[in-house]
Write a structure and sequence with these properties.
InterPro entries: AB_hydrolase_fold, LACT/PDAT_acylTrfase. This is Lecithin-cholesterol acyltransferase-like 4. One of its GO terms (biological process) is lipid metabolic process. It comes from Cucumis melo var. makuwa. Helix content is 25%, strand content 29%. The protein is α/β, with parallel strands linked by helices. It has an eleven-stranded mixed β-sheet with strand order 7-1-8-9-14-17-18-19-22-21-20. The termini are far apart. The N terminus is likely disordered.
Length: 537
């Protein structure tokens, strides 16, 4: 019997050796990478000061709503600019295991069956280890308390310490910072307020799906009625939309994601409300009231003026917080004035191709809103623009920095972090692995912006608009002959015509000309000139 057991043990040992995974490939020559997530993209643990007990409160699927209410609900302290938990015994800590990667990898490590909404940087971490990056040597993460302002000194101190630690751990190599979503605002605030530290440690910054000018439609509807991170039956096991609403009303980070009122929007985001009005004779009629970004604050303030929660037996008012709004407006000025150090290269990847809320409308012509206090119980309708479902392309592209490249990748706001086209661009910019012989910047949406102008005016009842945009396309092979242009500029044009309204004689016309210049020094210059003429409505 003992001999049989010995044979079994030997067989099992042999089997284990056969199935043992080979050691991962490690490239010691790579520059380090620091991954910075966006809102809701970090695991948060609640630590009880009395008992020392620590447990995960974000993200967790089971018991999530109860834990959020008791341990994560918070109020804003205007003296510090910080959101503080209602329970004074509770402190929020971001776990730092795996050199910060644990907190931003899979947000609920207890989930056996995968769920898209909890995978954050997981796929990117797996992909980058295939390229030769090594956790703790060349691959790191920075999780943070995403409730707080992107310029909170405490968070900036932690980021400064993380940059120094990464720099030291990698042997004094400068760092490639890769941010996603609101993480881009955090990095830009750090760049503006801690510029010398940023310049000392950072080599490249790659921002992915960053709401540089805000996410107006998404945030406006969140202020009014909250947000859900999961849909369908899974909402029964996760945080309710109402509970999330109460948390976010006191989060400075959400106010900093509001649409920028000073940005020159091509499509102005609005908050619209159908209201019932009465004339002097008492007759009622329904009208659509439209509020631009600054004016919409009045509606948000009135609609949330009676909002409150019951916490530990006490009613706590939670109106739209004008103190946080003031703080957020100051943050916006810091973001606007932040400058990129000359030796740091900046890359912008934005997601595109999805309907993205931009203007939010409550009520309709048949069912106007009678009471603004009940606005949060009304389902909104949206006017959409191009984007990733959360951030409009217009906002994500408007970084205000001298970008080496701005890349459009079709995809959704979070799932773009798992997109193969994004991976190919990252691998190329990080100089990881062998050069990809199939890398095609044009097909992978790599462009260099060089100019953009648009103007419009009304003349003799006609609205005339002119647009000029220029790009440079980088070729991977600078010595390849330019077969497309054959050494000469290639010119192409298109004309469109459309009937306006019901009148066949009323038309709108547009024409565009595209000029593709011959390739020089690995770059190809492309010009678009367009003109449209329509009857002024």
């Amino acid at each position: 019997m003992a001999l049989l057991l010995e044979e079994i043990v030997k067989s099992v040992e042999l089997w284990l050796k056969l199935i043992k995974k080979p050691d991962p490939f490690v490239d010691p020559n790579l520059d380090p990478v620091l991954l910075v997530p966006g809102v809701a993209g970090s695991i948060l643990n609640a630590v009880n000061d009395d008992t020392g007990k620590e447990e995960r409160v974000w993200v967790r699927i089971f018991g999530a709503d109860s834990k959020l209410r008791t341990e994560l609900w918070s109020f804003y302290d205007p003296t510090s600019g910080k959101s503080v938990c209602f329970d004074p015994k509770i402190k929020i800590r971001v776990p730092d295991e795996r050199d910060g990667l644990y907190a931003i990898d899979t947000l609920d490590p207890d989930m056996i069956i995968g769920c898209d909404s909890i995978y954050y940087f997981h796929d990117m971490i797996v992909e980058m280890t295939k390229w030769g990056f090594q956790e703790g040597k060349t691959l790191f993460g920075f999780g943070y308390d995403f409730r707080q302002s992107n310029r909170l000194p405490e968070t900036l101190d932690l980021l400064a310490a993380k940059l120094e630690a990464v720099y030291t751990a990698s042997g004094g190599k400068k760092i490639n910072v890769i941010s996603h979503s609101m993480g881009g605002l955090l990095v830009k605030c750090f760049m503006g307020l801690r510029s010398k530290i940023f310049e000392k440690y950072v080599k490249n910054w790659i921002a992915i799906a960053a709401p540089f000018q805000g996410a107006p439609g998404y945030v406006t509807s969140t202020f009014v009625s909250g947000m859900s991170f999961v849909n369908g039956w899974r909402q029964n096991f996760f945080i309710s939309k109402w509970s999330m609403h109460q948390l976010l009303i006191e989060c400075p980070s959400l106010y900093e994601l509001m649409g920028s009122p000073d940005f020159n929007w091509q499509h102005i985001p609005l908050l619209e409300v159908w209201r019932e009005k009465h004339d002097k004779d008492g007759n009622s009629h329904n009208v659509l009231e439209s509020y631009p970004l600054k004016e919409s604050v009045e509606i948000l303030t009135e609609s949330l003026s009676t909002n409150k929660i019951l916490h530990d037996g006490v009613d706590i008012p939670l109106p739209f917080n004008l103190d946080i709004l003031k703080w957020a407006n100051e943050t916006r000025e810091i973001l606007k004035n932040a400058k990129l150090p000359p030796q740091v290269k900046f890359y912008n990847i934005y997601a595109t191709g999805l309907e993205t809320p931009h203007t939010v409308c409550y009520g309709d012509a048949e069912n106007p809103v009678a009471d603004l206090h009940k606005l949060r119980y009304t389902e909104p309708k949206y006017v959409y623009v191009d984007g990733d479902g959360t951030v409009p392309v217009e906002s994500a592209m408007a970084d205000g920095l001298d970008a080496v490249a701005r890349v459009g990748v079709p995809g959704e706001h979070q799932r773009v972090l798992r997109d193969h086209r994004l991976f190919r661009s990252l691998k190329h910019w990080l100089k990881a692995g062998d050069p990809d012989p199939f890398y095609d910047p044009l097909n992978d949406y790599v462009i260099l912006p060089t100019g953009f102008e648009i103007e419009s005016h009304v003349e003799k009842g006609l609205e005339v608009a002119a647009l000029k945009e220029e790009w440079e396309i980088i070729s991977n092979d600078q010595n390849k002959p330019d077969e497309l242009c054959n050494g000469k500029p290639m010119v192409s044009s298109i004309t469109l015509s459309q009937i306006v309204g019901d009148c066949p004689s009323s038309r709108a016309e547009a024409c565009a000309t595209v000029v593709v210049h011959p390739q020089q020094d690995g770059k190809q210059h492309v010009e678009l000139n367009a003109l449209s003429v329509s009857v002024d409505a």
